[in-house]
Write a structure and sequence with these properties.
It is a single chain. The protein is an alpha/beta fold. It folds into three domains: 2-145, 3-Layer(aba) Sandwich (Rossmann fold), CATH 3.40.50.1390; 162-285, Alpha-Beta Complex (Hect, E3 ligase catalytic domain fold); 288-379 and 439-518, no CATH class. The protein is 51% helix and 16% strand. The chain has 16 helices and 15 strands. The strands form five sheets. The protein has a four-stranded parallel beta sheet with strand order 2-1-3-4, sandwiched between helices. It has a four-stranded mixed beta sheet with strand order 9-13-14-15, covered by helices on one side. Strand 7 (247-250) and strand 8 form a beta hairpin. The chain is extended, with a radius of gyration of 30 Å. Mean pLDDT is 80; it is low at 513-518.
Length: 518
Amino acid sequence: MRAVTYARVSGDDTRREGRNLASQLEMCREYCQDRGYDIVAELAEDDRGASGASWDLPELNEALDMARAGKFDVLITRELDRFARGLAKQLVVEAEFKRYGIEVEYVLEQYDDTPEGQLTKNIRAVIAEYERVKIKQRMVRGRRDKVRDGHVMVHGQPPFGYKRAKVNGKVSLAIADKEAEVVRLIFNLYVNEDLTLSGVTSYLDAHTVPSCTDLRGHTQSRKTRGYGEWSIATVSKIVSNETYKGIWTYADNPDLAVDIPALIDPMLWEKAQRKKASNWDESKRRLKYQYLMRRRLWCGDCNSKMVGRSKKSGDRLYLYYICQAKNRFARECNMSIHFRVDQVDRVIWEWTRDLWRDPEHLKERVKEQKQKWARKIRPMFERAKIVEELRLDHERQLDRLLDLYISGDFDKEMLLDRKQRLEQTIRALEIEQCVLTLDGSLQAREAKLETIDKMAQSVHEQIKQADTDFDTRRKLIETLGVEATLLVDDDGQKWVSVRSLVGEQATLPIDAMGSYSR
């Protein structure tokens, strides 16, 4: 017998003896050795923990792929809840393996392939699911009770400007003087001096004001900036932090709040929020310049999104795409070159226009993409089919149970207990059926491909209009799902790697003429 062993730990397993991956795999090896099984693969999920409630477990999916290909005969795992902590998923996973002729065996328990064995297995699965829910409930309830008692539950570092403190025997927050000075300076610059978030960041950099990591003594190896260098994202986060007005809340729940010393006057904090909301609304309305690939470009060095920037030189205006990872997000990036918007947009638009001008080729690409996508999601539909079969089977069992109850040949309490378990299983299967069939992203992708397919034959007039109309160009770019990455090679040549929703892609040189070949 060819065997595959499978191990998984979840977050609450990591401190429990015998639950770590190495221990599970060792037990599986001994089990296989005792029975003369030949181990062809050992599969183990991430040792940091992988939730059994998730369908997306890479190693379990690998085992299913191997099962489909007929690469082994029996799957060995430590115990029932290694696949899942939920009855429905447990039933579905086992049914999938059985569909491919694979036996599933458990090191710690043996379940006969009989109605009694299936009942025992289902009871164990229900208990595992119950344990998972109870563990989560206990943890959440414990934290909530602590907060209601006046404790502050901070995971990791407290908000910048505060430090942990004991107040009347309870965990709370106290003002950290040096950090508080910086926070008050930021609010003063933003509200009273009427600077933008970018202006506040520039002021802090120019005056070498120590940053959060500087004041908290993190080692240089963890920093991506020098001393006194700030990012706009950090300043924005500080300006939005509600804690500074003297109220700390647990999980953003206003009913679970603890009073702490106010670092910022509540009126000043409210003014900052109104200004930020107003600036955001205005920024969406105020698009001074036309960037065809706005929010659709990535940096080839750090994979951050690239943004549009303008620069005036005398009477001339220049528009560029730049990577702002260093300035805004404090990330390492070696992309120091700016890309001219007119050159990048021209290359990408000409490539996109040629795609739309060849409707037969485009429709063929849509067809291929649909087939490729169907192959990718087929396992999900197979699981949905298995769930439906299991649900119908349990409903038939429930009907037979009713017949037995009416006949009066069996103990009433036993039948009622079995009825309750069957109904619980059916409800769990119905929930999983909804999860597997109501995938919004899947439906959205299918709808986009259908739109491209329909537009392919009637887009000629729009293409003509797009050559002179920016909004039409932008619409055709968005419909085709065009995105791109900007690159620079060792010789300084600029390139754009462009791709679309239909799978068409190319890497094109960027030059003043914008010429390329598809």
